[in-house]
Amino acid sequence: MLVRILTGLVGIPVFLGLLFLGRWPLLALVTGMGLVAFYEYSRLGRAMGFNPSLPLGGAAVLALLLTAGLMPPDGLYLGAVLALSAMVILSRSLFRPESFSVVDALMTLAGVLYVGLFSHLLLLRRLGGGSGWDVGLAWVGLAFLCTWGADTMAYFVGISLGRHKLAPKISPQKSVEGLLGGVAGAAAVGLLLAPTVGVLHWHGALLGVAIALVATLGDLTESALKRAAGVKDSGRLLPGHGGVLDRFDSSLFVLPFVYYIATLIFGLS
């Protein structure tokens, strides 16, 4: 527990500082996180008996994140990178299929799509000027703080009141009561932060509820991957927290959800 707290005391201020700076510092951080996360994913895949390609998948993830951070955020460039990545990865299975089958190619591509969701952190941050106090930082703050609020409340409610298992075959520690506590915690955070993103208070509370539910799906998805691989943590990069996927499993689902809510529902660009 002490190691976990010390990692948080060092890591959280650094992470928040890079979020504030945005642009190149944040791009460097997110690309590093993405490459480590794909490495962790490939280890999980090999533990399941598959052979995802680390070079091809890592290159595709890198291209996705650089595109999200540097090119116009209109979706056209990201779509082109995804299409090219799919063609290259699937075509690779035509050569020496005994060492890299079509299933391995699909597993690699699935990892690119999964880890590539980190691109939405960059897209969300770029909604404003991309640096300093702006609307992009406010929306990123809403996404992370609602997620952390949900996790915190779910933990405390779960250990004190948890009686009914939420998904016992995937994550035995999670309870329905903990989920409800997490929903309440995220709704309270969303209610408080609504003015910072320019929405009504009830919109913020509703966003918090939705974020808590989406975060739970992200958490359970990574738990299912680890259970299938027979491991406790996806990696060891963050002492006391596991790997990048362990720390950001919920956010991988929350960030794209919040980005599309901000752009498609509230009209930001």
Report on the architecture of this protein.
The chain has 269 residues and is mainly α. The chain has one domain (2-265). Helix content is 74%, strand content 3%. It has a two-stranded antiparallel sheet. Helix 6 (119-125) crosses helix 10 (244-265) and helix 8 crosses helix 9. The protein starts with a helix and ends with a helix. The model has no long low-confidence stretch (mean pLDDT 91). Keywords: Cell membrane, Lipid biosynthesis, Lipid metabolism, Membrane, Nucleotidyltransferase, Phospholipid biosynthesis, Phospholipid metabolism, Transferase, Transmembrane, Transmembrane helix. This is Phosphatidate cytidylyltransferase.
Characteristic terms for this protein:
2 strands; 269 residues; two-stranded antiparallel ribbon; 74% helix; 3% strand; globular; mainly alpha
When the domains are counted, the total is 1
Low-confidence stretches: none
What spatial order of strands do you see in the largest sheet? 1-2
Topology pattern, helix = H, strand = E: HHHHHHHEEHHH
Shape: globular
N- and C-termini, Cα separation: 41 Å
- Please provide the count of β strands: 2
What Rg is obtained from the alpha carbons, in whole angstroms? 19 Å
Portion of residues within helices:
over 70%
Mean pLDDT: 91
Structural class: mainly alpha
Strand content: under 5%
Largest sheet: 2 strands, antiparallel
The number of helical segments is 10
Short description:
This protein is mainly α. Helices cover 74% and strands 3% of the residues.
Layout of secondary structure:
Elements: H1 2-21, H2 23-47, H3 54-70, H4 76-92, H5 102-115, H6 119-125, H7 135-161, E1 165-167, E2 171-175, H8 176-197, H9 201-229, H10 244-265
Antiparallel strand pairs: 1-2
Helix pairs in contact: 1-2, 2-3, 2-5, 2-9, 3-4, 3-5, 3-6, 4-5, 6-10, 7-8, 7-9, 7-10, 8-9, 9-10
